Amino acid sequence: MYVSDYWKQFGVIEFKWHYLNAFVYGSIGLLSLITNSMVLFYILRIKKKTNRTNGIIFLINLAIADIFKVMINLPMTAISSFYGKWIFEQKGIFEISI
């Protein structure tokens, strides 16, 4: 993999920063799962008696898409942060992003 000379002037990042990065990603992922699940619960259960307008359907789609993104992308990033490098190779990037 080609790395520009500009980035080679910086030293190697200490592992404590990788662990902190993984913790932040995990916290954001957990918070996102909880809040999006609450949005879906509220819309699908409590708002059942009202009409489903385009805005409500859009919010449902947004919450579902965000939940799937969190379930796929954030664990991969957090796990790679623990190892200090991307461990899923180039193949994993393209298969999941398509």
TrEMBL record:
GO terms for molecular function: G protein-coupled receptor activity. GO terms for cellular component: membrane. InterPro entries: GPCR_Rhodpsn (IPR000276), GPCR_Rhodpsn_7TM (IPR017452). Keywords: Membrane, Transmembrane, Transmembrane helix. It is found in: Membrane. The keyword Transmembrane applies. PROSITE patterns: G_PROTEIN_RECEP_F1_2. The chain crosses the membrane at residues 20-44, 56-76. Its main location: membrane. This is G-protein coupled receptors family 1 profile domain-containing protein. It comes from Brachionus calyciflorus. Residues 35-98 form the G-protein coupled receptors family 1 profile domain. It comes from the Eukaryota. The lineage of its organism: Eukaryota, Metazoa, Spiralia, Gnathifera, Rotifera.
